[in-house]
Hints:
Helix content is 30%, strand content 31%.
Amino acid sequence: MRRGLLPPACGWRICLLLLALTLSTACGYHTAGHTNTLPQNLKVLAVPGFVNQSQTFRIEQSLTQAVVHELTTRTNYQIVNQASDIADATLNGTVLTTSASPLTYDSKTGRVESALVIVSMKVSLVDRDGKILFQNPSYVFREQYQVSQELSSFFEEDSPALGRLSRDFAKTLVSDLLEGF
């Protein structure tokens, strides 16, 4: 006589049931970059030059240019550079603040070795009927850069740092637009 709690056939059925339940429960995650939650009727996006309310010269141009490039390479939308009647939606951006602060110092000379650039923005995508399709009033991006210590080869690293920051911002923004975050 067997002393098990369940007959062997029941044990297999329970194992199969547990396996089926485990496989059928999904966590809700998906692979990034493979979703587009924007309305299907969008074909033309207007991306006018972003507004600059900061003290950083031409940063809005770098950010706008990076976003247009990212939209052009990752989507099939036609991109126009100003709001118009042909645009199905308009992407507006405003650079609110920029700042740079030292991160590390040379212990011998006391000079700054690396600095951190921080850019704060607000962004919205509005369709031609005025409906907000996407909005983020508080994008904050940071980029670290090294400061040259050699006076003979000194050049400002903040322009390349802002370029990297602009590209990172554009990648994140386009992903957020397409995936609805």
